[in-house]
């Protein structure tokens, strides 16, 4: 079946309510099967046939412009040039003239009424057009409520207040659109990171072409000071490349032949030739943008609560407004004009704008800010869960340590010298894929150990390996392997235990009859690991746990060095998975931090799976809820702090929005709630909620 899906970018979409209405209008187009609108990313996905003209007609009520996803959008009009903002300023001029007339010839004068009437018509033309259409369809959104309120005010002779309400509404709409645009700025910045054109060499021809036309295998030429347009592999030259745009690392990384480079990164001093390895839509930066946009569209639990609340809240406000307008005059003989006026004010103050926007703006801002700092949070739900973490579990190798073990000790336990021990060890381990094997091979090459050949290599799962060297069969592996082969002397056991207490992994080398020597290997701790654990404890993380397949003594030694709460050693992947489940049962919210490949089951089982080194590894981007793009834990405390701040801001926003409504509604009782005060309360609440959310842009590392 043909996939008839088209993605479009939007310009001019001003509010969350407008987004819902726009989506509904598109759905009403007969040829459209399904539609998904992403308010945070300003994108709409349409399944079925719909022309751009049809889509723009569906969004005409809000002046929405529609562009195909791959097409460059026109620069938006400056804030002060927008038609609706110009109309609001002209309206203000008539309001000022109206008040001058009010004080000169009185409020009942035709001149005064005429000036306020013109202010209402000019400033509220777009508002009434939509509001009256909505009324005929019995759709009650902010514009409907405002239309009813302004027409009602004019009918009961409150022309001045009607004009002020129209102007204040226009100002609040403009400021809300401006603020939301500011929140979206982070994603726009990401989209502009990579250049649109690349200089490539095909055969002998050098040309500058659009990135969409670059093919895999093309050779891209990058001069000093240029940004890379595509992902690829360096084939010639060397240079420092600033990868801050992708990984958040401020220190440039040295690149030479064979190294991977990413679109959007900055080549500093050398010239590079790069073989393109991915199409423009598959580059790391394109994936980041896609994931961030998807994340911003995902509804967080608190947003789901707000959406449900607003669904019942708006009709309830309509009923309250009607009761305020008719009950006192009908039952207690009160003044109709006075109580209809109060009813209109209740309509205006009751609009759920601030409430509806309280969560999405905070989430869009936080996710965008994190992406610019090299942290990918794949949805509002993961942002909220990260803010509630109590326990953080770490994989050891490659997470807390460098993941590149080095040989620290070579000890002879027989008449075989250390050079021969290394040579025989290398001969066997050169067949093995184990990380410890590569450490021995590197050490033998560095020290110039002699070269011997091994044959009949055989791996002994989980314990070591054996092979024939010369006329003898040699074994290399853990002390457990030699316990099964022969009786390990006490002095050797003591030496092994001493080295293990220092955090080293010990491998013995010997034949079936005698232990010839030992090789101790240690994975180097990352320089930042200890300070990061301290920062997490300061942030209020109750427990930090290390999960490792290493032996107990090595695990404990590293755990002590880092100041971890707990160390679990000698774990197989399924043991890690089971232990994460146990931790969740005990503590509720648990994060697992790993490299996203061999830790995939544990990452999936944790409340929040955090993968390191997302740049370059698709597995990390796919399996994790949060990806730290740099191969470093530095961003972990920042991510947790940002998530906690986001949770706090969402709670503040929801509480504030509801309290302002309650306070304003209580003013109805003594009759102090005026129309302009009602819209001031609504506008003020919306702007304060948005401004509070934008504080997340300033969250520092």
From TrEMBL:
Residue ranges of the TM segments: 86-105, 111-128, 312-332, 344-368, 654-673
Record keywords: ATP-binding, Cadmium, Cell membrane, Hydrolase, Ion transport, Membrane, Metal-binding, Nucleotide-binding, Phosphoprotein, Translocase, Transmembrane, Transmembrane helix, Transport
Origin superkingdom: Bacteria
Membrane topology: Multi-pass membrane protein
EC numbers on record: 7.2.2.21
Any single GO CC term annotated in Swiss-Prot or TrEMBL for this entry: plasma membrane
Subcellular location field: Cell membrane
Reactions catalysed according to its record: Cd(2+)(in) + ATP + H2O = Cd(2+)(out) + ADP + phosphate + H(+)
A Pfam family the protein falls into: HMA
EC category: translocase
MF (Gene Ontology): ATP binding; ATP hydrolysis activity; metal ion binding; P-type cadmium transporter activity
InterPro entries recorded: ATPase_P-typ_cyto_dom_N, ATPase_P-typ_P_site, ATPase_P-typ_TM_dom_sf, ATPase_P-typ_transduc_dom_A_sf, ATPase_P-type_domA, Cation_Transport_ATPase_IB, HAD-like_sf, HAD_sf
Keyword Transferase applies: no
Keyword Chloroplast: no
CDD domains: HMA, P-type_ATPase_Cd-like
Family per record: Belongs to the cation transport ATPase (P-type) (TC 3.A.3) family. Type IB subfamily.
Organism the protein comes from: Bhargavaea beijingensis
Protein name, as recorded: Cd(2+)-exporting ATPase
Every HMA domain range: 4-67
Chief location: membrane
């Amino acid at each position: 079946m043909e996939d008839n899906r088209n993605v479009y970018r939007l310009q001019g979409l001003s509010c969350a309510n407008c987004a819902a209405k726009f989506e509904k209008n598109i759905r009403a187009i007969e040829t459209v099967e399904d539609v998904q609108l992403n308010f945070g990313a300003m994108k709409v996905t349409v399944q079925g046939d719909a022309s751009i003209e049809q889509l723009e007609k569906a969004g005409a009520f809000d002046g929405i412009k529609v562009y195909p996803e791959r097409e460059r959008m026109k620069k938006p009009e400056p804030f002060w040039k927008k038609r609706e903002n110009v109309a609001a300023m002209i309206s203000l001029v008539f309001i000022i003239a109206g008040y001058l007339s009010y004080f000169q010839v009185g409020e009942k004068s035709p001149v005064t009424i005429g000036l306020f009437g013109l202010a209402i018509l000019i400033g509220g033309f777009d508002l009434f057009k939509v509001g009256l259409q909505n009324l005929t369809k019995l759709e009650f959104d902010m514009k409907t409520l405002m239309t009813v309120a302004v027409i009602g005010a004019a009918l009961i002779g409150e022309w001045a207040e009607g004009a002020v309400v129209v102007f204040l509404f226009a100002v609040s709409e403009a400021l809300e659109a401006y603020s939301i645009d500011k929140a979206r700025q982070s994603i726009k910045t990401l989209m502009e990171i990579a250049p649109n054109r690349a200089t490539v060499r095909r055969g002998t021809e050098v040309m500058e072409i659009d990135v969409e036309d670059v093919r895999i295998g093309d050779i891209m030429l990058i001069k000093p000071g240029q940004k890379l347009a595509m992902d690829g592999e360096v084939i010639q030259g060397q240079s420092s490349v600033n990868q801050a745009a992708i990984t958040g690392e401020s220190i440039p990384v040295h690149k030479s032949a064979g190294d991977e480079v990413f679109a959007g990164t900055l080549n500093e001093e050398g010239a590079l030739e790069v073989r393109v390895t991915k199409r423009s839509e598959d580059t790391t930066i394109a994936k980041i943008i896609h994931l961030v946009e998807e994340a911003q569209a995902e509804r967080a639990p608190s947003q789901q609560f707000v959406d449900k609340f607003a669904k019942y809240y708006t009709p309830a406000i309509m009923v309250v407004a009607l009761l305020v307008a008719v009950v006192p005059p009908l039952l207690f003989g009160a003044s109709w004009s006075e109580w209809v006026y109060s009813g209109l004010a209740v309509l205006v103050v009751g609009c759920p704008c601030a409430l509806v926007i309280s969560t999405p703006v905070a989430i869009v801002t936080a996710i965008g800010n994190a992406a610019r700092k090299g942290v990918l949070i794949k949805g509002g739900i993961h942002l909220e869960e990260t803010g509630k973490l109590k326990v953080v579990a770490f994989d050891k190798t490659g997470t807390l340590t460098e993941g590149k073990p080095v040989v620290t000790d070579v000890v002879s336990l027989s008449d075989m010298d250390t050079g021969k021990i290394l040579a025989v060890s290398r001969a066997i381990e050169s067949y093995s894929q184990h990380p410890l094997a590569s450490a021995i091979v590197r050490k033998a090459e560095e020290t110039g150990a002699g070269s011997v050949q091994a044959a009949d290599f055989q791996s002994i799962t989980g314990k070591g390996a054996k092979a024939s060297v010369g006329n003898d069969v040699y074994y290399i592996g853990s002390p457990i392997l030699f316990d099964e082969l022969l009786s390990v002397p006490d002095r050797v056991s003591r030496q092994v235990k001493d080295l293990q207490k220092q955090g080293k992994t010990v491998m013995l080398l010997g034949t079936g009859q005698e232990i010839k020597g030992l090789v101790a290997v240690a994975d180097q701790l990352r320089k930042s690991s200890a300070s990061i654990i301290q920062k997490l404890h300061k942030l209020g993380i109750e427990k930090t746990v290390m999960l490792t397949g290493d032996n107990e003594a090595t695990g404990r030694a590293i755990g002590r060095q880092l100041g971890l709460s707990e160390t679990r050693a000698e774990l197989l992947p399924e043991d890690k998975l089971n232990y994460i489940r146990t931790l969740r049962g005990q503590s509720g919210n648990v994060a697992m931090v790993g490299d996203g490949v061999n830790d995939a089951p544990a990452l999936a089982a944790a409340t929040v799976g955090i993968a390191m080194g997302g740049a370059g590894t698709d597995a990390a981007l796919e399996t994790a809820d949060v990806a730290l793009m740099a191969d470093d834990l530095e961003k972990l405390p920042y991510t947790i702090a940002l998530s906690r701040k986001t949770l706090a801001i969402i709670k503040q926003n929801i509480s504030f929005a509801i309290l302002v409504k309650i306070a304003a509604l209580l003013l109805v009782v003594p009759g102090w709630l005026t129309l302009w005060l009602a819209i001031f309360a609504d506008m003020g609440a919306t702007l304060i909620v948005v401004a509070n959310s934008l504080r997340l842009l300033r969250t520092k590392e």
